[in-house]
């Protein structure tokens, strides 16, 4: 499993997860007021959308609208250009990764916010086992899902007028993970940093770094951290406890 740390630490694909950590409020700027959309209604589900992907990139031509709840944040710099949403605040059944080229997206799409996505014109693909929705770019001559340009994010992604909610993680065992849990909040009990990695920092400066979590049954998860995150130079914690991520 790959975990990623942020104020939410991310586990991308079933080889990816995210720790929920304390949120820093003061970034020396005010949160801008954002409009909400009350006229849009979902007519398709995240699960329906993901089921369309079969081994190759597709561009969606239908006027579908999907809805979900934000469970990721780029506040601590561990996420860049991604937004993870799940279909329910409690006991989600599906999650999705949205690729957006929008800095400080947490100011506009907060954790627990209900959002709606107009899918027409967007691309659906897979990377590292995770289904992704976004724009398109060329990778070695082959088209792949890329970040949706900031100028058009607002044409596809909308805040609903629902009040902010609190996503609740589903408690699972390491050996109980399933593909449907990708980009949804899950919680594991009795996890700790591998003893040989204690004393190391969360990440090597300016490098994506993998650290290892383990439990009493010697089952392991990979913790994937950004070398550009705010906590990059912090030492990995000792002790044993629960960890929440996606």
How would you describe this protein?
By secondary structure, the protein is mainly β. It contains 2 helices and 17 strands. The longest helix has 7 residues.
Produce a short descriptive summary.
It is built from 2 helices and 17 strands. With 246 residues, the protein is mostly beta strands.
Number of strands: 17
For the largest beta-sheet, the strand count, sense and barrel status come to: 10 strands, mixed
Order of helices and strands: EEHEEEEEEEEEHEEEEEE
Estimate percent helicity. under 10%
So what's the overall shape?
A: globular
Radius of gyration: 18 Å
Structural class: mainly beta
Give the number of helices. Answer: 2
Q: What does the secondary structure layout of this molecule look like, with pairings?
A:
Blueprint: E1 2-4, E2 17-18, H1 46-50, E3 58-59, E4 65-70, E5 82-86, E6 95-101, E7 114-118, E8 123-127, E9 130-139, E10 142-146, E11 148-149, H2 150-156, E12 157-159, E13 170-171, E14 186-193, E15 209-214, E16 220-225, E17 241-245
Parallel strand pairs: 1-2, 1-16, 6-9, 6-11, 13-14
Antiparallel strand pairs: 3-8, 4-5, 4-7, 5-6, 7-12, 8-9, 9-10, 14-15, 14-17, 15-16
């Amino acid at each position: 499993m790959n975990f990623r740390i942020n104020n939410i630490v991310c586990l991308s694909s079933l080889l990816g997860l995210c720790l929920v950590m304390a949120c820093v409020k003061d970034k020396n700027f005010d949160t801008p007021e954002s409009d909400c959309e009350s006229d849009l209604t979902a007519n398709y589900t995240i699960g329906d959308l993901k089921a369309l992907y079969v081994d190759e990139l597709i561009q969606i031509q239908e006027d579908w609208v999907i809805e979900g709840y934000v469970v990721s944040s780029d506040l601590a710099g561990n996420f860049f250009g991604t937004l993870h949403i799940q279909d329910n605040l409690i006991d989600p059944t599906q999650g999705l990764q949205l690729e957006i080229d929008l800095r400080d997206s947490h100011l506009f799409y907060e954790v627990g916010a209900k959002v709606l996505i107009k899918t027409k014109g967007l691309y659906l693909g897979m990377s590292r086992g995770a289904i992704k929705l976004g724009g398109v770019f060329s990778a070695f001559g082959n088209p792949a899902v890329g970040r949706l340009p900031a100028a058009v994010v607002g044409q596809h992604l909308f805040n609903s007028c629902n009040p902010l909610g609190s996503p609740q993680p589903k408690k699972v065992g390491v050996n109980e993970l399933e593909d449907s849990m990708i980009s949804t909040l899950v919680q594991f009990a009795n996890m700790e940093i591998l003893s040989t990695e204690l004393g190391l920092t969360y990440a090597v400066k300016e490098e994506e770094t993998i650290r290892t979590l383990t439990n009493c049954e010697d089952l392991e998860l990979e913790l994937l951290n950004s070398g550009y995150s705010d906590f990059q130079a912090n030492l990995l914690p000792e002790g044993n406890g629960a960890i929440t991520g996606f």
